[in-house]
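Entry 12.
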Amino acid sequence: MPRPMARPGGRSARVQRAVHTAVQELEAEVGRGALTVPLIAGRAGVTPSTIYRRWGDLQELLSDVAVEHLRPDAEPADLGDLASDLRAWGEQFVEEMASDVGRAYIRDALVGDPDGSNAGLCSAYAAESIEVILGRAAARGEPAPDVETVLDAVVAPIMYRVLFRPGLLDPAYARRLVADCLK
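Predicted 3D structure (tokens):
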């Protein structure tokens, strides 16, 4: 488990950025199977002991990188009504999570997560996006389900299929889940 940063924006943040960037670059250049802590440390300009102290091992480092990639880059689109906003978000969620890259990040996030904190972060990212969508609906006076209902009715079935039945996942599935959730 990564240690909390002592000085946000300080050396710790620079080290994290450098190491994350090194992982991404090296994975693209040499492939995942060739990644080692010494190779990553050399590219990042840190010692291997820095990586071991902060992340523990290669799997925990890959897990940290994955969780960072699973964090949304922006707020969900505002299309003017709850059904449209939630449908668009669900379709994008399926597209991102069901991609080969998305599935690899999910596996990494969970495998290097002995205490479940990464799973909690990933869940929080989805919940935060849904809260934005539901908050907009409330501001427009639209009736809306609560966050947990959307997580249970939309996100959970998508994640089940991402992990266990990826061949049965497409944007139409997300649209059906949203429609059922909003009935």
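Annotation: Residues 11-56 form a domain with the Arc Repressor Mutant, subunit A fold (CATH 1.10.10.60). The radius of gyration is 18 Å.
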